[in-house]
C-alpha cells in the first residue's frame, strides 16, 4: 500500500457511517480562521471555533479522516506514551506540564461529550483499558502508573492476576493496570461525525482541496490557496500531522514518519466472545513490542503492531505472527483466524512524544508530533488551538509556542531501534522470570 492510497483494505472504511457531502473549494471565501487538515485536531479546532461564533473554514486535501484519524486502531486511552508523568514534568517544566497533563488525562471526557452531544455514530464504548503485566516484575511499574495518574485525577487501579484474567480472558498475564476511562470506537466514523458537527455549527468544510500556498494578503491577514480557490483569513492553523504535504515550507520536517499496521479478524463466535475480552475492554499485552487489540461492533478482533523485519512487509508471515500472538494470549480460540482486513497508517513522531506547537508567522501556527496518541490527543488539542485563535495569551495556553524546528536526524531510525531494544529487554526479563514467551518473541 502506498502512503496516500485510499482505505481500500480498511475495516473502518467498510463499516463507518457515511461521510457528509462536502464540496471542493472554488473561488474566494473569507473567514476569521482557516484550519488546514481534516483530522481530529483540525475538526475539533473548527468545532470549538464555530461554537464560539467564529467564521471558520476547514480545508482538507482528501476527505476528512483520510490520514491517521481514520486509519488508527480505534482505541482511546487518555494517557501519554513513552514518558511517565514525573518525566514529563521535568522535560516540559511548569506550568506547561501540569496544563497538558490535565488536558490529556481528561481527554476522554471531551470525546464522550462530543459523541453524545452530536449523536455521532462511531461504535463508542467506554469499558476501560488494560495494560497487562507480561511478567511478575512488570507490576511495580504499573503500580507507579496507578499512583501518578490517580494523583492527576484519573480513575485507575492495579489488577491482580485473577482480576486480569477475568477481565481479559487471557491466562498469560500476571496482573495489569486498569484505566476505567479508556474506550474504543470506529475512528473514521468519529471523524465523519465531527465533520457533521462542524457543519451543524456553521463551519465550512471543503475537501479535495489541498493547500498549495499560504501567503500574506494585500488587505491584511493571509491568503490560503488551493488549486481552484482561496481562503482569506485573519488567522491560519495547520493541523495536517503525519500527512503534511506542502502548505508551509519545512513543516513536513518537524517530525519523522513511523508506520503502523492494523488488522481485523472475521467476527468471532458468541461462545468465543464470552471468554475472549468478555468485558469488551481494550488490551495492551504489556510488551514494548506492542500488541494492542479490542473488538469492533461486529465482534471482530482489531489488532495493531509496528512493522519490524519481515513483519509488515511479508503479508503471509505478518498474518501468521498476529494469529500466533492472539492464540497464545487466548488458547481458548479454536477456530481458524482470518485477518479479513489489513491496512497501514503513519505516525508523526518526534522525540518528546508530545505535540509541538509552532509559531510560523504572525497569525499562523502549526501543530505536529502527536506520536501515536491520536484519538484522545487530537480531540483535546482542538481546545488549545481554538483558545489561541480566540486570543488567549500565549503564557496561558496548555502548549508552549516555539519556533519551527526540524526533527533530529536520529528520529529517522530512533523509534525503530527503540522498539527492537524493548523487544530484547522484554525477552531477557521474561526469560529471567521463568515464564513462557509468546511466539516470535
TrEMBL record:
InterPro entries xrefs: FAD-dep_OxRdtase, FAD/NAD-bd_sf
Signal sequence, renumbered to the chain: none
Key words of the record: Oxidoreductase
GO molecular function, one term: oxidoreductase activity
Record bears the keyword Oxidoreductase: yes
An example Gene Ontology CC term for this record: cytoplasm
Pfam families: DAO
Domain FAD dependent oxidoreductase: 32-388
Full protein name: FAD-binding oxidoreductase
Species this protein is from: Ectorhizobium quercum
